[in-house]
Amino acid sequence: MSKEKEMINHPEHYNVPGRKECIVEMEELFSPQIVFGFCIGNEYKYTYRAGHKGDIEQDAKKAVWYQQKAKELSEKYYYPAIKKATDTKTPESVIAMLYDYYGAYTLADILGDIFNDKDAEIEELKAELDDFKEQICDLMEELEGD
């Protein structure tokens, strides 16, 4: 096994003898939203710092690892619930639920995966999301003015 592979996929320092791998323990201890957010945050961090600390290629590969882990978590925890919800709820309530789970950072990408990249549907959902965000901003401004 190469040193790089050990540093990317299952580094020794995240595999303490007698315990599960750190990310596995995190999935068991914390909510899926927390671990998903952790992965998105680390993806951003490694992309941001690539070339400024350590090996640029290693940072890029770590960013991809965390991106793939976030997608895995989405498929494992969220997609089944979201697909079920889309059968029983209005588009607005589904968008609100997705926004609560994922935030604005990756919502458009996740919607694209859920609806198999149907461009017209995605653009319509993005427009609805933008309207939803505007409504939230307007409400927040009203509340700040009170």
Please write out the topology.
Elements lengths: L2 H6 L13 H8 L2 H18 L6 H33 L2 H12 L4 H8 L4 H27 L1
Helix pairs in contact: 3-4, 5-7
**Beta strand count:** 0
What is the number of helical segments per DSSP (H or I, 4+ residues)? Answer: 7
What separation lies between the terminal Cα atoms?
A: 62 Å
Order of helices and strands: HHHHHHH
Shape: extended
Helix amount: over 70%
Low-confidence stretches: none
Content-based structural category:
mainly alpha
Describe the biggest sheet? none
CA-atom Rg in angstroms: 19 Å
Strand fraction: under 5%
Mean pLDDT: 76
Describe this structure in words.
By secondary structure, the protein is an all-alpha fold. The mean pLDDT is 76. The protein has helices at 3-8, 22-29, 32-49, 56-88, 91-102, 107-114, 119-145. 77% of the residues lie in helices and 0% in strands. It contains 7 helices and no strands.
